[in-house]
Every structure is written in C-alpha cells, then in structure tokens.
Write a structure and sequence with these properties.
Layout lengths: L7 H16 L3 E6 L6 H14 L4 E5 L6 H5 L10 E5 L2 E5 L2 H7 L3 E4 L15 H10 L3 E7 L7 H8 L9 H5 L3 E5 L3 H9 L6 H9 L4 H31 L15 E5 L5 H15 L3 E7 L8 H16 L3 E6 L3 H12 L3 E5 L8 H4 L5 H8 L4 E5 L37 H19 L8 H19 L1 H18 L13 H48 L4 H16 L2 E6 L18 H10 L3 E2 L11 E6 L4 E8 L9 H50 L1 H13 L6 H35 L8 E3 L1 H11 L1 H4 L4 E4 L7 E3 L1 H18 L4 E8 L2 E7 L35 H11 L3 E4 L9 E7 L32
Parallel strand pairs: 1-6, 1-7, 2-5, 5-6, 8-9, 8-11, 9-10, 11-12, 18-20
Antiparallel strand pairs: 3-4, 13-16, 14-15, 15-16, 17-19, 20-21, 21-23, 22-23
Length: about 950
C-alpha cells in the first residue's frame, strides 16, 4: 500500500509560506497587451465596487491621460496628494510613498508600474515602491503592459521597432497574488484609438502609423496571453502542491528538472541572451544561472566593456538568476564545468558573429556553441538570436575614466593589466632584450650560440612573469632580431649566411612565444588563486576573532577592521541599543546617511551603492541578518565602488555581514542567559527569604498575639511569666530583623567595593569574653571552654563586627551542637586563627566536601529542622571576615565528633607600647570559663 502521508518538511515549509503570506499585503496586477485595452478603467471599476462594499480604498496615483470615461470613475474615491520634486528646474509631481505608508488603506491603487521616479525619490522605479508597500501589509492594485517586462524587452523591440526604456523585472509579475488579464481585439483597439479614447488626436495618428499597427497588436496580444497562461499554470501547480501537502502518493502535476545557464560575454547582445534565458526559465519553471568567464585575453578589455559585463550580471540578478564570475584559460571548458557543478541541463549562448573580411576563410574560429558542444556533448545548447532593437543598459554611475577596476577575483591581487599600464611593459620588454644582448656580447667568444639563445629565453620568462603575454611576445620578437643582428654571421646585419639559422630563428621565436604564454597563464592562475585565498583568509580570520569576542563593542571593532581590510575605504558596524535603535557614531563620516541605514534595518534589505534602492548613495548599507532577526547594519564606502558589482565580492560582503550578525546574536543571547541566571538566583533567594520569614516571623508574632490577649486574664506570677515570654519572643524577632538588615548592609558594602570598618588594635581575650557574654541568652547553661595563650598579640580589626562573628558561631553551636563548646585562638605568622567547636553530631554527611555552601544566604544544615532560623548567621560571618581580608571555613574534625568553624584574620606586628609614667594597673583576671561565673549581661 503506497505511503500517502504528507511530508513533514513540506508541511512546515507550507506553514511558513502561509505565515509570510498573511503578514504581507496582496499584489493585483491588471495586465494588458498595450495601452488602451482598459487596464486603468477595469482597476477603477473594481475599486468602486470595493468602496461600495465598505472597504477603505485609496487612490495613490492614477493616470487618466485625458480619458473622460476613466476620470469619471475617480468620483467618490479618496485621492492621496502627490508630493512635488524639483527636476531640471521644473516641479514634477510624484507618488508620496511615505504618506501612503502612514495612511495604510485596505486597498491602494498605484497606476503605471513601470514608471521611473524622479531623482531624489527613495526608489528609482515605481515597482520598488509597490514592493515596499506590499511588504508593509498593504494590498496594492496596479497596471502593467507586456512590453514593459524586462525579459521581453528585446522581443518587443524586434516586433515593433520601438525601444522601450522603462522595464519591470519578471519576478514582480511572477510574485503577484492575482493577475487580471484585460484584453481587447486588434480591431476593437484600433477603433478606440480612432475615437480618441486612447490618445489625443495628434498622438493617436502617430501611434496608428507606428506602434499600433495591426500586426504589432496581434503579436503583443499573443505574448500577453502566453505570459498570463504561464502565471495561471504556476497558480494551478502551486494549488495542487498545497492540496497534496507534499505527500508521496500525490505527485505534483508537472515535474521539471535541470536548470538553465546563461553565458554572458563582453558583446552588446549579452543582455539579450540574459533576457532570453530568463524567459525560457519562466516558461519551463526551472532555476537559472548566469556566468561570465574571465580569461587572460578578456582580462585586457577596456573599462566600458567591463562595465557592460557587470551591468549584464546585475540585470540577470534582477531577473532572478544566480550570477558568478569564473576564471580559466578558455571559456568553453570553464562554462561546461560550471554547468556540471550546478546540474544545468541547458546552456543559453549568444549567436556567434562571423569575422569580417577574408579572415573568416583562412582563420576559421568555432562559435561558442560549437566549443561548448565539444567540451560537453551531453549538454543542450540554445542560441539566442540577434536582439534587433532593445534597450541599452546604463553604464555604472561611478565609473571613472582614469580607473579601470578589474572585474574578476584576480583583479584584487594584481591580476589586472590596465590599458594605461601596458606601455611600461612593452618598454621593459625592449629594455630586457637590450640588457641580455649587452650581457651576452662579452661572452660571445666563450659561449656557444645555443647557450646565448637560452639567455634570451630566460629574458622572455622574466618579462612574462612581470608584465604578461603582450610584452613577452614583443620580447621574443626583439630577441630573435637581436640574436640575428649581433651574434649570427654576418654580424651587425640581418642577412643570414646559413639557411639553417632560419630554423633556429623559428624555433627560438616559437619557444619564446610558448614560454611567454605558459608563464603568463601561470601568473594569471596565481592571481586567481591569490584572490580566492584572500577571500577565504578574510573569512577565516574574522570567524576566528569573532569566536573569542565576549562583548558587542569587540565585535564592532573586529568587524569594522575586517571589512576595511578587504574592501578598503571606510566601514561602520552599527549594532542595536536596548531600544532596538541603531547606535550611530557621534560624528558620522562624509556621505553617511542615517536615514538609509534605518531603512535598511527596518526592511532587512541592502540599499545604497550598487543596489536598486537609493543607488546614488556613495555608501552601501547591508543588514546584519542573524538566524533570529536583524541585529544592525553594516555600512561601507569602498575604495573601489565597482567591486560591489562583482558577484563574488558582493557575496563576500554579505558573508562578512552575516558572520558579524551571528556573533552579535551570540553575545546578545549570552547576556540574556546571564540575566536569566541572575533572575533565577534572585527568585531562589526571594523564595528562601519568604519561606524563612513566613515561619520564623509568624511564630514569634503568633506567640506575642496570644500572650497579649491573655494578659487581661492573668495576675501575679503568671503575669510576670507572660511578660518574660513577650520579651523573649520580641528579642527573637528583633534578632531576625537585625540579621536581615546586617546582611543587606554588608552585601551592599561588598558589592560597592567598600565596607566601613573601624579597625583598631584589639585584645583577643576581651573580644572573646564580650562575645560569650552577648551570646549568653542563646547559650543558657551550656558550658563554654576557652583556650587562649597568654602571649596572644594585639590584632587590628573591628571589635564590634568580630564580636558579632563569634556570637553567631556560638549561637549556631548552641542550636545544632552539644556542650561543651570550645573557643581557641592561635597566633600564626601573619595571621590570627580562632576556632569554635562543639561536640554534637557534627555537619550533615551530605555536606562533606561542600562545607562552603553553609555560608550562603538562607542556607541551613538541616533544611527541615524544627530549630528556628533563616540561615543568615553564617552568611554574616563570612561577609564580615571577607571584609577584613580573612577567611572562614567549616569542618576539620572526624565525622560525628562535632562541628568546628575556623576564622583566619590577617595580622601584622603591633606597634611598640610606649613606657608609661605611672605604674601599670594590675592585669584583668582571665574571663570566666563557666556560665555561673559570668556577670549578667548589661
């Protein structure tokens, strides 16, 4: 039984696509063969129906061209005011994109999709405005004629003889949610034209003689119908895929395989080849690529031809292709290998041009299709016809006549031979020939002529390595002439006495040319490899340094340095602040536009130099897109702007930006994790505090309330006992609150880096005695034994705080240990050590090896013990000792033989005691060791 279960990956992809479809607005295109078929009229009629149905319809821009019937349909529809832009001294009304985004209607009408915006607009083309509107969630209706599709530009020009300059990428039509075909027969359209319903009479007469000829109308109508059918076919295929859910039992209606590869050359018809490939890919519903091969011969092309190649590659990208610049010694093998790597079944090439003159007969050159067929016989090859009349691609706006920046990766590493730098190479070739001749002239009587020929060949190798093929060929010719003139009899003459020398000259010239060719090819390959190695090294070094970065500021510095090192010029990495706004520099560099950077952040698309959005900018703005979201913007003003048109360099920039974005996201989530840990710890401490207080505060308060309520009914001895109980419970509550306040004060001092200590030279015996007296209420009748050597020196510390430490240790021993309780002190070199030990059950076995956890806040040795306490006594001890620069530890005795706490305080030698004028008073007696001998507490 076949498995008809849906593919989980297909279901997930379908859910994601549906989610994106919900977030973006819809695009409806009213599509027609040419002007006058009624696209705007149909769009306005549908808008009136939507308005009557209660939808918010807004007219963004509609061109009626003086048609009264069309203008009448605007009645009742709100119209968005246009904004005025100054262009060539005249005010030009344009569609207000920002006002439309702020208004956010349910349906927005934007006529003439192929319109070119005035300079100074955010986007160069109106279709780019429409894409931004749709991305923001607004439903847009627009109109388009078939002759404005980019892939059909050359075909329409060849049919009508009219060159259309305003074009729209085919992907805009392909991505439209609805395509409404508005059709009219040629006779009906001619009747409308004659009636003045299309153009005014003067324009209508010219149009009828040129564009609106019946043959043109029939051909354009056929193209429009076919293009609409292709879109409907895509809709049907997508619907069947959605209905099947990607299951294995219901295959898609049309299975397509393979891909197209458009071969881009330096000729003018390369743009037509790209348009043909885009049209074929759309008809076959396959992916397609475009590639240009940089060979040593093509490397010497002048700058205008290089610009044309880059413009064609950019055109291919706008039509949906993946572009690449390849390198190789020959074009056909490189394209065949690239096609195999991409699994492209069909190659689209331009038609070969016949050589002019008689050279077509005596030196036949195979066409590109024949060469590729020889290199890869299994590939299908499609030759695109001559374009006839088509739109010329605009040159790069930043091209400088004095600079010819290379268009291949090797150009970044000295592989480019600029036209201005050719003549020094030829001069060096001539100088090399003269130098070898002068060097070999004194050796003519010593060396054979064959060895002298070797010296000349060595000179050819040196010229080829340094200057390339052309100078190497010139050096080979000059070397043959110099060898004949200087060394072959008769000397100082080009005459040859022996015919065999002609063979020598021929072989010498052939070997020289061959060696120069191979050496120059090796130089070219080395430059290509160096370029690839440079890009790989840049990514490796950036990834390595980013992996060690722990803060966003470090990532910004590392990313800026890496981008500047690779592209030159200026670079800025702009991360986000806590409010998700770009952190702009205090002094922005020249040409930097913060509004463009903000637009890039909000839309997640590149803008500025070398893009379709605000291309007049001198900076390129790239979003730092991480897996989760956009983390900032990378701004670059490269030293050589034309590099950004090279596909490999553009992808290198995107890769660098993505690595920086991933590092910023990693640091962000590290901070989030750290804050989460802090929040969890705070929550744990809060719960522990509330749990402790809920028990140890409620118990004294309950006792106080009960005793207070019983006071009126008691008298005599019972009243006094109740009063003592109230005092005892109040003291317990006071001790609890004191511990909390002391802990908060000590923690605040430690976190701020300063705890106020009143250090003074103190007697250890006095502090121990006062601690025992202060802890007497908690000790009760328990025996306390002291072991204090009589020669204990004075130690500098805060007596009040150290007394508090000893009191807490004594109270802890009284609660959890058993008598007797021992206090011992010992003077060590540079330290004072005080030990407090009881003889009870000792520390819990579970805490063996983890004794330091006893000193954490709200930690008790027995969590479920009935003994009152909140677990702050030992934490206060630790805070006080650490404030003195000392240490406190638990343990040190065998299991089950009591618990011992050791306090270690740093000490230094006390100052000398000055001699007193009066006899010293007798020393105080040792503090009593038994509670019965202690005086009552004050």
């Amino acid at each position: 039984m076949p498995d008809t279960r849906p593919d989980p990956d297909a279901l997930i992809a379908q859910m994601r696509a549906e989610e994106q479809r919900v977030q973006r607005g819809k695009l409806r295109i009213y599509f027609g063969a040419n002007a006058g078929v009624g696209k705007t009229w149909s769009m306005l009629s549908a808008a009136q129906r939507e308005r009557q149905a209660g939808r918010d319809v807004l007219v963004g821009v509609v061109e009626t061209h003086g048609r009264t019937e069309t203008a009448a349909l605007l009645e009742g529809l709100p119209v968005l005011p246009r904004r005025s832009l100054e262009h060539r001294g005249r005010a030009r009304p344009e569609f207000d994109l920002d006002a439309a985004l702020q208004r956010r209607p349910a349906v927005l009408l934007v006529d003439e999709l192929a319109h070119t915006n005035a300079p100074g607009s955010r986007h160069a083309k109106r279709w780019q405005d429409v894409q931004e509107l749709v991305a923001s969630g607004i439903e847009v209706w627009t109109a388009l004629n078939v002759q404005h599709l980019e892939s059909l530009n050359g075909t329409v020009g060849a049919i009508t003889g009219v060159r259309v300059h305003e074009t729209v990428p085919d992907t805009v039509l392909d991505e439209a949610d609805e395509v409404v075909l508005v059709d009219a027969t040629p006779d009906e359209l001619a009747a409308r034209l004659a009636a003045g319903k299309v153009y005014v009479p003067q324009q209508a007469e010219r149009a009828a003689q040129n564009f609106f000829r019946k043959g043109n109308l029939i051909a354009l109508r056929e193209i429009a119908l076919r293009r609409t059918a292709e879109h409907v076919e895509d809709d049907v295929r997508g619907w069947r895929v959605e209905q099947s859910g990607g299951g294995h039992g219901v295959p898609p209606a049309w299975n397509t395989s393979g891909a197209l590869l458009a071969c881009v050359g330096p000729h003018e018809d390369a743009a037509h080849t790209v348009r043909t490939a885009a049209r074929l890919a759309g008809q076959l519903n396959v992916r397609w690529h475009a590639a240009y091969v940089e060979t040593p011969r093509l490397q010497r092309l002048p700058a205008p031809q290089r610009d044309r190649v880059l413009a064609v590659l950019q055109l291919a990208e706008s039509l949906g292709a993946e572009t690449a610049v390849l390198t190789g010694s020959a074009v056909a093998p490189a394209l065949a290998e690239h096609a195999r790597q991409l699994n492209c079944a069909t190659l689209v090439v331009g038609r070969a041009r016949m050589r002019a003159g008689c050279g077509r007969w005596w030196w036949p050159v195979p066409g590109m299709a024949q060469a590729i067929g020889t290199a890869a016989p299994a590939l299908d090859i499609v030759e695109a016809g001559e374009p006839g009349s088509s739109r010329r691609l605009a040159a790069s706006p930043w091209r400088q006549a004095a600079e010819a920046v290379p268009a291949a990766p090797a150009a970044a590493n000295g592989g480019d031979e600029r036209h201005a730098a050719r003549w020094p190479g030829y001069s060096a070739a001539a100088a090399s020939s003269v130098a070898v001749t002068l060097m070999a002239l004194p050796l003519s009587g010593v060396l054979e002529l064959t060895n002298i020929v070797m010296l000349y060949l060595l000179g050819v190798v040196g010229v080829a390595m340094r200057f390339g093929r052309g100078p190497a060929a010139l050096a080979a010719l000059l070397n043959v002439a110099a060898f004949d003139f200087v060394f072959v009899s008769p000397r100082l003459s080009f005459a040859v006495s022996d015919v065999q020398y002609l063979v020598t000259f021929s072989v010498m010239l052939g070997v020289g040319l061959l060696v120069g060719q191979l050496t120059a090819g090796l130089r070219f390959s080395a430059g290509v490899s160096a370029g690839r190695e440079q890009r790989t090294r840049s990514l490796f070094e950036l990834t390595r340094e980013l992996s060690a970065a722990l803060e966003a500021a470090q990532i910004v510095d590392i990313g800026t340095a890496a981008v500047q090192q690779h592209f030159g010029g200026q670079a800025l990495v702009l991360p986000l602040d806590e409010s998700d706004r770009l952190m702009l520099p205090a002094q922005p560099p020249a040409g930097f536009d913060a509004s463009v950077a903000d637009w890039t952040l909000r839309h997640g698309q590149s803008a500025g130099l070398g893009t379709a959005t605000l291309a007049a900018q001198s900076w390129r703005y790239v979003p730092l897109t991480a897996p989760m979201r956009v983390r900032g913007v990378l701004a670059l003003a490269p030293a050589r702007p034309r590099w950004l048109l090279i596909p490999e360099q553009a992808r290198q920039l995107d890769t660098l930006a993505r690595q920086i974005a991933i590092a910023l996201e990693r640091v962000h989530y590290v901070d989030v994790a750290q804050r989460a840990v802090v929040d969890m710890e705070s929550e744990r401490l809060r719960n522990a505090l509330l749990g402790a207080i809920s028990h140890d505060v409620r118990t004294p308060l309950t006792a106080l309330i009960a005793l207070a309520e019983s006071l009126p009914a008691q008298s005599g001895e019972a009243l006094q006992a109740a009063s003592r109980s109230i005092v005892q419970q109040a003291h317990q509550l006071h001790a609890l609150v004191s511990n909390l306040l002391d802990m908060a004060r000590l923690e605040s001092g430690l976190s701020g880096g300063h705890v106020s200590l009143r250090r003074d030279w103190q007697s250890v015996e006095e502090v121990v005695g006062s601690a025992i007296r202060a802890a007497r209420p908690a000790l009760g009748a328990l025996e306390v034994r002291t072991s204090l050597p009589p020669d204990l020196p004075l130690v500098e510390f805060d007596a009040v705080l150290i007394e508090r430490v000893l009191v807490n240790l004594l109270e802890n021993a009284a609660k959890y240990g058993a008598p007797p309780i021992d206090i011992a002190a010992e003077a060590l070199p540079g330290a004072l050590q005080i030990r407090v030990r009881d003889h009870g059950p000792g520390l819990p076995a579970a805490l063996r090896g983890q004794e330091q956890t006893l000193f954490d806040k709200f930690t008790r040795g027995q969590a479920e013990s009935a003994t009152p306490g909140v677990g702050l006594g030992l934490a206060i001890c630790k805070a006080v000792v650490l404030a003195h620069g000392g240490d406190i530890a638990a343990g040190g005795v065998p299991l089950g033989q009591g618990a011992e706490f050791t306090v270690t305080l740093p000490r230094r030698e006390p100052p000398p005691v000055p001699e007193a004028a009066d006899p010293p008073e007798p020393p105080l007696p040792d503090p009593p060791h038994h509670p019965s001998d202690l005086p009552p507490p004050p």
